[in-house]
Design brief:
Radius of gyration: 24 Å
Strand order of the largest sheet: 2-1-3-12-4
Strand content: 5-15%
Distance between the termini: 24 Å
Largest sheet: 5 strands, mixed
Helix content: 25-40%
Shape: globular
């Protein structure tokens, strides 16, 4: 899930899931990413049984001898730790809301968040180069700088810190996650949030993907709710929407929306589109498959090129950053878009409050010529982001204790549900969110975060399975986001074996990065090509330059990583 803000819903849903809720009351592990309406996803027993822990991160003795967590002894000793979040959109402050105040009260730690003002990669690269990393760092598991920091000995092994200062860490950490993230030297340098195991996908049919094809409900219905899964149907729908609704709220309609364009491409026009077209990740022989030159994918890129030639790809989508996108989603200015549903939930709720017919709904989007179902990813063992402790840390003992607190049941309760008496009450043993707090969460997320900061506003260590025990039932009709999630259920698969990354300090990693940057330069050129002939020339030049950058070696390394991951996960 690349750079996506994932928040849980406070509800329980799902086939045969309710009977399992009680089983999670005794859970004291973290690791499986599950939205709160997918309880049965964790009933997978011994999934990923091929994973094993090594002696170097042995936790049994710690679990047996640890009677109290270390953070509890420092509540009266205040300290401030800096925490870098590698997302420019993260803007939840520390100290004003109830949750951050409670965490400080429990641990004595005040957090000073640091976020990039511009490009995330450049900001982190500059801090690494200057050896000025903050105390704690959170970034996407796929970021090349993750391995760079580890290779340069810039971060602590979490297991070493835990053994020295906070053995309780091993009580709240998940064994499968530790095994997955453990390096060849036997150390664990980072810990993820929001993880899933393959067995979760086998035991529950209500695990959702973040990737959706969305249309504005009123406009889509006004043009007859057309089939947009074929190139012809898609183009006709876009043309009709733009003709009938040239403006929305006095502003020009943006016929096709898209995720932010970055130096490595655009999720909407590469990864998401490929997944909707069910483009494979490996061929029949188990070799890495070149998804970027797949015939079905190229045919659909040419559809978007044609629509641009006709004036339906607005300049906005090539230049807008997340803030601008959020503003335009809140105004309902996009007709359709391949987009991550959780990144627009706040705007969806605002649209619903103003006019229920103006919301975005998920429908069948682009499909391959065979009409195959989309193959959409849910989260895997990699999770979403990972968190590390820098060797520049002013107090590594307090840092590992803070992470352990946030991973613990106490910390998860606070970060998810908030503070008793402020955001929720305990009534006859049940956790009940206050009505006015729930109402604010559903209508004004920014104000909710400012006042309360619960519902995983601080998502860096979130453990969705552990949080299931505090789930709330709610009226589905009051949640305009649920239908988007439910639409993805039949198409969501465990695809963690295909999540690839390479360290920049290796030849393959250098080539991998260079090829990704080349694609980032090529994709907008393809979409903006004035003719199909120019498109073909640009694509041919891309393939030739990619070969010169070492594509064959990269593909071989990808094949090796995929097969290794499948073996570790027991998916062979």
């Amino acid at each position: 899930m690349n750079g996506k803000r994932m928040r849980n819903k406070i509800k329980i849903r799902g086939k045969d899931c309710g009977t399992l809720a009680a089983g999670f009351l005794a859970l004291a592990i973290s690791g499986s990413f599950i939205t709160l309406n997918t309880i049965c996803a964790s009933a997978g027993g011994d999934g990923a049984a091929t994973l094993s822990r090594t002696d170097s991160v042995e936790t049994g003795s710690a679990q047996e001898t640890t009677s109290a967590p270390g953070w509890s002894g420092y509540a009266d000793e205040p300290i401030t730790l800096s925490w870098y979040i590698n997302y420019s959109w993260f803007d939840t402050d520390w100290g004003e809301n109830a949750v951050s105040q409670k965490i400080t009260e429990e641990t004595g730690v005040t957090v000073n968040f640091v976020t990039p003002a511009g490009t995330e990669t450049e900001k982190l690269a500059a801090m690494i180069s200057a050896n000025s990393l903050p105390d704690i760092i959170t970034l996407g598991w796929w970021e090349t700088q993750l391995d760079e920091m580890i290779a340069k000995d810039m971060v602590y092994a979490l297991n070493d810190l835990a053994e020295e200062y906070e053995p309780y860490f091993f009580t709240v950490a998940d064994d499968e996650v530790i095994a997955w993230y453990q390096k060849e030297d036997g150390n664990l340098y980072c810990y993820p949030n929001s993880t899933y195991t393959p067995s979760d996908y086998e035991t529950c049919d209500t695990i959702g993907s973040n990737q959706t094809f969305l249309v504005r409900k009123d406009i889509y219905e006004a043009i007859g709710s057309p089939d947009m899964s074929t190139p012809e149907g898609f183009m006709d729908a876009v043309r009709m929407a733009a003709e009938l609704f040239p403006e929305v709220g006095g502003e020009p309609l943006i016929p096709i929306g898209a995720d932010v364009f970055t130096s490595e491409g655009c999720n909407s026009f590469d990864l998401y589109l490929q997944n909707f077209l069910a483009v494979p990740y490996e061929d029949e022989d188990g070799a890495y498959y070149d998804r970027y030159t797949d015939e079905e994918y190229i045919a659909w890129l040419k559809v978007f090129r044609q629509l641009n030639e006709e004036g339906y790809l607005a300049t906005d989508i090539f230049v807008d950053q997340r803030t601008q996108m959020e503003e335009k989603i809140a105004q309902g200015r996009y007709f359709c878009m391949l987009y991550q549903r959780t990144d627009m939930e706040d705007q969806e709720k605002s649209l619903y409050a103003n006019d229920p017919d103006s919301i975005y709904i998920a429908v069948d989007g682009p499909a391959n010529s065979a009409g195959d179902d989309p193959v959409l990813p849910g989260a895997g063992l990699n999770g979403w982001t990972v968190t590390l402790i820098s060797k520049n840390c002013s107090d590594p003992e307090r840092a590992i204790e803070l992470l352990t607190y946030l991973m613990s049941e106490e910390g998860q309760l606070v970060t998810f549900l908030g503070v008793e008496g402020v955001t929720y009450d305990v009534v006859d043993g049940a956790y009940v969110v206050k009505e006015e707090v729930q109402e604010l969460l559903n209508t004004d997320r920014s104000e909710y975060d400012r006042l309360y900061g619960a519902d995983n506003a601080y998502w860096m260590m979130q453990n969705n399975v552990l949080q299931l025990q505090w789930s709330q039932s709610s009226d589905d009709s009051a949640d305009p986001c649920l239908a988007m999630e439910e639409w993805t259920y039949p198409y969501t698969h465990y695809l963690g074996q295909y999540e690839l990354s390479f360290s920049l300090d290796t030849e393959v990693g250098y080539s991998w990065n260079a090829i990704n940057v080349l694609w980032g330069e090529t994709l907008p050129e393809l979409l903006l090509a004035s003719t199909e002939e120019e498109f073909d020339e640009i694509l041919a030049a891309f393939a030739e330059e990619r070969d010169a950058l070492g594509y064959d070696e990269v593909a071989a390394a990808c094949t090796e990583k995929i097969q290794e991951a499948k073996a570790r996960l027991g998916l062979e």
